[in-house]
TrEMBL record:
Pfam families the UniProt entry points to: HECT
Transmembrane segments: none
Entry protein name: HECT-type E3 ubiquitin transferase
GO biological process: protein polyubiquitination
Length: 273
């Protein structure tokens, strides 16, 4: 019995090679120009760019159910692996026209059952197929584009986690620090309106806090919200009364607060303006 993976992974669409190359160029340019990019690539991609072999943990990140199943295969304590899991060294892939194609992970893979003594070999071959064999052409196009816009010798100084963090930005938010560094126009930190503002903000769910900060702070870059690696202390929170005549060019970076507004009104205003 062959192993089945998420069907979309294995669709072969050669006409998209130029698209992958262009995406690689965009990621490289974003890195070069210090822009945060809304490319939610898995860590495995950055490992491959740095010539680090992806592992089962990377498969778990990309396909949690599949990764968990392979981990259960490795953790199984008994000798009847072949009878319980009913696997051989094959994987089913799907062409872009929907035609299923059986791929052998090793020579004569269809005739080789997965047993206790070779299950690690099966998992390694499976992971290699997902991250290397099945995507070789598309990844080569992506990597070619990336390296054409960002110096390879600079990329190689990073670890995969570091490279991903530079492209994506820091996803850890120190909200208390943002409050402490906030500045106010015609308000004081201990004014009741400001206290109400931060009371409401601190009660917001995490995603709504990000949404608010993305709309009203200097942390928004090309429509994608993220924090630079230097942290949230480099973001500016500037609060002013709604009656202030602020330059129109700054309105995306400023948060107007209704004077003496109750908390519920501040909450509505912050999320809907």
């Amino acid at each position: 019995m062959q192993a089945n993976l998420p069907r979309s992974v294995f669709k072969q669409e050669p006409e998209f090679d130029d698209v992958f190359r262009l995406v690689g160029i965009l990621v490289g340019l974003a890195l070069q120009k210090h822009f945060l990019a809304n490319f939610r690539f898995p860590l495995a991609l950055y490992k491959k760019l740095l010539q680090v072999q992806p592992t089962l943990d990377d498969l778990k990140e990309l396909f949690p159910v599949v990764g968990s199943s392979l981990q259960k295969l490795l953790d199984y304590k008994y000798d009847d692996v072949e009878d319980v899991f009913c696997l051989d060294f094959t994987v089913m892939m799907e062409m872009n026209d929907g035609t299923p194609v059986l791929h052998e992970l090793i020579p004569k893979g269809k005739e080789t059952p997965v047993q206790k003594h070779n299950r690690k070999q099966f998992v390694d071959a499976y992971v290699d197929y997902v991250f290397n064999t099945s995507v070789q052409k598309h990844f080569t196009a992506f990597a070619t584009g990336f390296r054409s816009s960002f110096p390879l010798n600079v990329v190689n100084v990073f670890q995969p986690v570091e490279l991903r963090a530079i492209v994506h930005g820091n996803t850890e938010y120190e909200w208390k620090m943002l409050e402490e560094k906030a500045t106010y126009n015609k308000y004081k930190p201990n004014d009741q309106t400001i206290k109400n503002f931060w009371t409401v903000f601190n009660q917001l769910p995490e995603e709504e806090k990000k949404n608010f900060l993305g709309k009203y702070s200097f942390c928004i870059i090309n429509g994608w919200f993220g924090i630079s690696l230097s942290g949230i202390h480099n973001c500016l929170a500037y609060v002013y009364p709604m009656t202030s005549q602020e330059p129109i060019s700054q309105l995306r970076q400023l948060s107007a607060v209704p004077g003496f507004a109750p908390p519920k009104l501040i909450l509505w205003h912050a999320l809907n303006t």
